[in-house]
Amino acid sequence: MRQVESELKFAIGEDAPLPAPGDLAEVGPVREHRMRAVYLDTPDLLLVRHRITLRRREGGADAGWHLKLPRPDGTRLEVHAPLGEGPGRMRVPQELRDEVRAALGHAWPDGPEGALLPAAVLTTHRLEVDLLDPDRHDVVLAQLCDDRVTALPEGSTWRELEVELVDGDQALLGAVADAFADQGVTLADHPSKLSRALGDRPARAGRGEGPAADGPAADVVLAYLAAQVAVVVAREDDVRADVPDAVHRSRVATRRLRSALRTFRRLLDREVSDPLREEIRWFATALGQPRDAEVMRDHLLAALDELPEEEVVGPVRQRVRAEADRRHAEAHQALVEVMDSDRYRELVDRLLELLAEPPWRGRASRRAGKVLPDLVARAVGRARVEARSAAAAEGVQRLHLLHEARKRAKAVRYACEALAPALGKDAAQAAATWEQVTETLGAVQDAALAAGWLREIAGTAERAGEPTYTYGVLAGRETARAEAAEEGEAALRVALEHPWP
Fold it and tell me: What long-range pairs does 447-452 form, CB within 8 A, spacing at least 24?
């Protein structure tokens, strides 16, 4: 549905009486509504900065998706879509996405920068009355709404009046404004509820300013969580189409999400965040299967290139490529089936709701520069415990513990990445140091996995009557490489000797 919206908003005191329209209109019966509206925008609030509003409203007479587009005459074109229920309910309807793209054109970026994520949540207790034609009581000239608004999660509240034309004309709006002014009720300073809730955020976003060290810890963590959810949401089509690097980027985003929800769990209600971590892990596992096949294919083909030509006996390259491609194709098909499921759609809804109303607790509202370094220090401590355990172990147990140490090192790396925009170069440098740890220990893990893959492929080759000599040579080299692991352990020691914060 499409309609032109023409309205005025008025500021009014919390306990002030409702102004009367006088002889302009008769007042109809009062209707009461309780509404919740989730407003969505790009990470840098591009829609708001172009005077476009997109929301999902529950409750009230016009529950549904609403897109409001500015018109040259000062009115706005409002486009509606059904609310939707069940899994996938938070997904912006395609027809509204198309409208936004048409309105913004090339200004709307592709990729995560253009993802539509919750930007604000407003709950409204509304008393609504019709302003009726004095001569024809069956004609509604306008609607007068007395709104008491709460912006979540901050909890700021205010009261405002809204008069929206139905069958009346612009002259009526002007006359109502004059009548209200005579009773001490003036036009609101803010053009919309959303603009009041966001404050100076759109201006700061337009300047590229993010959360600050002297601001709430919650703002820093939320910005990082939002960046990862943006990747998951924006890359869906590319993941389905198996566009190069799409699965990898989405997998990394899920790892960062899980890691952040754990590292910063003291700031969150774990009855919400812990079950969500488990669902993210389920999806990350589905992403991991095709990605692992890609990594192993490239790893094994590179290892083959390192062998002297005389050591390559039989159609090894063709067999490795064929087996890896087969596994990748099967895993990608399984991934698409996962993404077609209600469970996945519900996961995306829960991620978007996490951004809409984060379950903050504890010290989340305190200064980021004070709170967050302590939580990173705890993550460093967990990495130190695993590193010591690995150093004291041997053989297969040592490889397992090094893998655990790598996961702990990733948690530190991701936490430092989350802090870097607010806390500056120290956090960024620490993230780079811990990235070196994860990369070098990742090479150890790849070698260990490659040895297992080679043994399985050798079995397939043997059943096909092909020589298996080269697979044994490669498996031996990969096992030796994994068991050595000196570079990974050295990088880990360096990071632990100079941890941040």
Answer: 447/478, 447/479, 447/481, 447/482, 448/399, 448/403, 448/478, 448/479, 448/482, 449/292, 449/296, 450/296, 450/299, 450/300, 450/303, 450/474, 450/475, 450/478, 451/475, 451/478, 451/479, 451/482
Q: Which domain holds residue 262?
A: 217-497
Same domain, 244 and 318: yes
According to DSSP, residue 124 is labeled E
Helix, strand, or coil (residue 137) = coil
Instruction: Look at the block and give the residue holding tokens 């198996």.
Output: 242
Please state, as a whole number, how many other Cβ atoms lie within 10 Å of the Cβ of residue 369. Answer: 18
For the chain, what percent of residues have pLDDT higher than 70?
99
Confidence of residue 499 (pLDDT cuts 50, 70, 90): low
Judgement on whether residues 261 and 146 belong to the same structural domain of the protein? no
Domain count within the chain = 2
Instruction: Pick the last residue of a domain from 204, 230, 255.
Output: 204
**The two three-digit tokens of residue 394, written as one number:** 């041997």
Farthest CA pair distance, the chain:
101
CA distance 411 to 312: 40
**pLDDT at position 500, please?**
64
Q: Output the pLDDT for position 483.
A: 78
Q: Looking at the domain assignment, is residue 424 inside a domain?
A: yes
pLDDT in tens, 122-142: 999 999 999 999 988 889 999
User: 204, 232, 255: which is the final residue of a domain?
Assistant: 204
- Would you say 126 and 34 are in contact if contact means Cβ atoms under 8 Å apart? yes
Q: What are the pLDDT digits (tens) for 345-366?
A: 999 999 999 999 999 999 999 9
Quick check: is 46 in a domain?
Answer: yes
Count of alpha carbons within 13 Å of 195, Cβ hemisphere only?
Answer: 14
Q: How many residues does the chain have?
A: 501
Where in 60-103 does DSSP place strands (E)? 64-70, 76-81
* Residue 211, domain member (yes or no): no
pLDDT digits (tens, 9 = 90+) for 199-247: 999 999 889 888 999 999 999 999 999 999 999 999 999 999 999 999 9
pLDDT, one tens digit per residue, over 72-83 is 887 889 999 999
